[in-house]
Amino acid sequence: MQYLSHLDQQRVFQRAFRRAEIPMAFSNGFNPHPRISFAQAMPVGMTSDEEYGDVILTDEMTPVHFVEKVNYVMPKGLKIKKAWLIQSAHSSLSASVECAVYKIKIESEESFQRLQTTLEKYKTLNTIIVQKRNKRKKMVDIDIRPFIENFSVDSLDLGIASFELTIRFIHQQSIKPILVMQSFKKLYKLNLNFEQCFQVHRKVLQMGDLI
Amino acid sequence: MFFLTLLYKYNKMYIMKDKKYIKNVILPQVKKPITYQGNELNATHKNLKDVFIRFAFAFPDLYEVGMSHLGMKILYGLLNEQPDVFCERVFAPWIDMEKLMRDKEVPLFTLETMDPVKETDILGFTIQYEMCYTNILNMLELSEIPLLSKNRTEQDPIVIAGGPCVCNPEPMANFIDLFVIGEGEEVVLELLQSYRHWKKEQRNGASKRQWLKKAAMIEGVYVPSLYQVYYHEDKTIEKIEPIKKGLPLKIRKRFIHDLEDSYYPERLIVPYAEIVHDRIPFEIFRGCGRGCRFCQAGMIYRPTRDKSVACIESGIQKLVRTTGYDEISLLSLSSGDYPQIETLIHDLVQQYEDQRISIALPSLRIDSLSVTMLEEIQKIRKSGITLAPEAGTQRMRDVINKGVTETDLIQTVREAFEKGWGHIKLYFMIGLPTETDKDIFGIAELAEKVVDQYYEVPKEKRNKQCSVVVSTSCFVPKPFTPFQWMGQKTLREFNRKQTLLKKSIKSKKIKYNWHESIVSFYEAVFARGDRQLGEVLEKAHELGCHFDGWHECFDPGKWQEAFEKTDISPEFYALRERPIDEVLPWDFIDMGISKQFLIREFKKASMENKTIFCRDGCTKCGIQEFDQGWICHDSHEI
Ligand code: SF4
């Protein structure tokens, strides 16, 4: 399922839970909404193999029963893999994300060799400064190197290069994979074409002690 | 060397117009890719091997708008219930998508299969408002289907259209092969049945034209190429006649007699993207017996037909289960007029309150609205209240037969303020027939009186904030209303009235919004236009007009150019007052209400005389004579 914004995703689950008649808990106030949250917002356009989220219920139900009921009414392309029951308040899901592994596909006019050697060079850098828009929409310089845990190029097939990129979360902060790809392209003036074909797929989201 | 192979690959993709190419290359570059990819919950998919007729249902506006439209949901479900028919959806691509499609030569495709629209058998447009006409031409062009009906070949899909706008089909007559007049549920199935026959015979050389002639005999069907228009020297119409004997002289609208048993979907597509009305729509009755003289819907959808409470409740229950929506909207032209409205609302609130599913009543009249009722439905979400007095003075409201009084309005807002509401929206029209500056001042005075009511409520009881929003739209005279002969006010006059109103509003609590008058002018042109306007539409399309209902796209300069280049005067259609005996472009269409009734209403309007609500007495609009045997149950003779 591609191109779901964070809000779209929220709605998809809300509605699925309603169809499955899950006893959701609601927030108070004039506009009560179901208490559902996700570990990581999915950037629009990205696909992924797994995501984490939690929902607060008013009645207890077994995880197996929950998964079964919800999957029965889930739209095609989305499925709940597993559920855990957490009895009391716990630290937020987003605080327990440790790292994320991405598969990135991009159109490339470079040879596999060149990609490999430049990538090795890239990884030896101690700091990689890029420009990023902060929350107040101002451009600021940040060092993205500490976030990059692993980065490799796996294949080049019919002009499409595949990369694997592991991004570490530091104090719940992380960066978008595209920032890494853009800085990589810019530093070595690589012929990578973001315009024509660029896909980001989140393979794994590694969680800490919570689960 | 390597680079060359790559280029080759893409070139081949262009030719194949590969679906993967659309998904991987086109969609990532547009703002809302999710609105082009379909696959939503409850969307229909069929094995093409089992399908005999492919029907592309087109809404000539954005996905977010089209997906909110009830008629499309009903027909989509109904058509797909037919085992050998596959109905798919098509919307107008937004500007970014359109540009890419043109650059990369990707033809317009359906959401369900991403197949080119051109590969379907029938392409059906629903036309909800005049300002989408250029979008229809644009969609035809993007589909690589000739714009003009007469230029299409046997291979092109048959292009049909329906919806409220086609009660005057003439401006679109050059582009549409066949119109469906009135409510579509029954006639569309009859059409498909006839099409099925023909498609089987097609192998033996039966032509499209032959089928159109046959279809033209079905009640409610209008095939414009079989009718000829004769004009007077002054460009008014002399007569409209069928080109051959045997064809109906008048096209009679269709309406469903038994709404209770007519088809209503049990599942609805649930979009991933947020759409304009993102909720369960449930139609509780059709038609309206109030008789507001400016309202086309109130005239053309007569008679009034209700669904029972039981039918509504069980229908809603199914939809809640299959969609998971958290809001239900009770639809009709005037929901407060539903005979058992209080019971219905009470039941629904009882049933869905715990699940936090809210109920919305979008069209409420001031006099039929009880604040207690509103309070009940807004227990869960307390939003603002919208009221439509339509005009500022009692005299003006009597002219348009909007039966509400100032006392009704003041009482309603007083009660609302007492119960803690603070935000009230008031809708008005300007440029109504016989309107004077006094009526404009009346709007400001009425709004001020509403604010006064707020201050009369004790501080501890009322909402901390008070805001009154006054909205005005420019009156557009529409076919099949008692005002169909009236000239529209000039742009200058509209602008003067808007300024006047702005100046006469004193209170800081009142905010004034107005609609741009230039759009209303062109709306008036096309609402009461004739076939000659086809040329203008073609020109406007050529100049790049599209999404004219969208502020950011509407380009008055291009429209002016289109009229100038074709040497057609828009004022002739919009501003001219037409004599009662003039042949109107839509006179050959019978919408059930009689011309005598409209003339009577027109005269009563100029005498400031009111006409009563059907339920209080029948004023003989003609629908019972139109359909011998139909009896309006909830009225009695006077
Ligand atoms: S026939 Fe009489 S009651 Fe029926 S819709 Fe017309 S005016 Fe109303």
Give a structural overview.
The complex is a heterodimer of chains A (211) and B (638). Chain A is α+β, with helices and mostly antiparallel strands and 211 residues long. Chain A has two domains: 6-89; 97-207, Pseudouridine synthase. Chain A is 23% helix and 31% strand. Chain A has four helices and nine strands. Chain A has helices at residues 6-19, 63-73, 112-124, 177-187; strands spanning 36-38, 47-48, 53-55, 97-108, 129-133, 139-143, 148-157, 160-168, 192-207. With 638 residues, chain B is of the alpha/beta class. Chain B contains 22 helices and 19 strands. In chain B, the strands form six sheets. In chain B, strands 2-1-3-4-5-6 form a six-stranded mixed β-sheet, with helices on one face. A four-stranded parallel β-sheet of chain B has the order 15-16-17-18. Chain B has a three-stranded parallel β-sheet with strand order 10-13-14, covered by helices on one side. The longest helix of chain B is centred in the last third of the chain and has 20 residues, at 437-456. The radius of gyration of chain B is 25 Å and the shape is globular. The N and C termini of chain B lie far apart (89 Å). The chains are: A alpha+beta (211), B alpha/beta (638). The interface between A and B is medium-sized, with 35 and 34 residues. Iron/sulfur cluster is lined by residues 289, 302-303, 614, 618-621, 623-624, 632, 635 of chain B.
Summarize this structure as a short list of keywords or feature phrases.
heterodimer; A: 211 residues; alpha+beta; Pseudouridine synthase; 2 domains; five-stranded mixed sheet; 4 helices; B: 638 residues; alpha/beta; Rossmann fold; Transcription Regulator spoIIAA; six-stranded mixed sheet; four-stranded parallel sheet; 22 helices; 19 strands; globular; disordered N terminus; binds iron/sulfur cluster
CATH architecture of the largest domain in chain A: 2-Layer Sandwich
Largest interface: A-B, 35 and 34 residues
**Gyration radius from CA atoms of chain A, angstroms:** 20 Å
* Straight-line N-to-C gap of chain B: 89 Å
What is the overall number of helices of chain A?
Answer: 4
Helix content of chain B: 25-40%
Percent of residues of chain A in beta strands? 25-35%
Strand order of the largest sheet of chain B: 2-1-3-4-5-6
Please report which band the strand proportion of chain B falls in: under 5%, 5-15%, 15-25%, 25-35%, 35-45% or over 45%: 5-15%
CATH class of the domain at 11-252 in chain B: Alpha Beta
- The CATH homologous superfamily of the largest domain in chain A is termed Pseudouridine synthase
